[in-house]
From TrEMBL:
Keywords: Membrane, Transmembrane, Transmembrane helix
InterPro entries assigned: DUF2568 (IPR021214)
Organism, scientific name: Mangrovivirga halotolerans
Pfam families: DUF2568
Keyword Lipid biosynthesis: no
Transmembrane domains' residue ranges: 12-30, 36-55, 67-88, 94-113
KW S-adenosyl-L-methionine (keyword) present: no
Stretches of the chain forming a coiled coil according to its record: none
Designated name of the protein: YrdB family protein
Length: 122
């Protein structure tokens, strides 16, 4: 179920929302030129981490792993990625949106139980 096209589309949308949340947080919390720096550098850093550290053959990704890591580490990275997105939204006052994002992430991972099991076996 974790590799189902609909679930992968939802995951992609969640990834985009997480990056936008990081940029918005950086924009709100920065002053002057730091506003631009934070709004760009935080989501770019998150995207680089997301795309670089992978488990080879991950069925929900391209299967490529620029830097190979164990499945449990990948799962921790993903949970931190989405957890920070929820926190970013909450911190800048989008409380309901942060709860909604958190609930959708939990449901997504619940539906992706087969992928979680696969990650934990690597």
């Amino acid at each position: 179920m974790g590799s189902h096209p609909i679930n992968l589309a939802i995951r992609f949308i969640l990834e985009l929302i997480a990056l936008v949340s990081a940029g918005l947080w950086g924009w709100v919390n920065g002053d002057g030129w730091l506003r631009f720096t934070y709004a760009i550098s935080i989501p770019v850093t998150m995207a680089v981490i997301w795309g670089t550290f992978n488990v080879p053959g991950d069925p929900s990704r391209s299967g490529k792993a620029p830097i190979v890591i164990p499945g449990i580490i990948r799962l921790v990275i993903e949970l931190l990625f989405f957890g920070f997105a929820v926190w970013f939204l909450n911190d800048i006052g989008y409380i309901i949106l942060s709860y909604l994002l958190g609930m959708v992430v939990v449901v997504h991972y619940f539906v992706s139980y087969d992928r979680i099991r696969w990650l934990l076996s690597r």
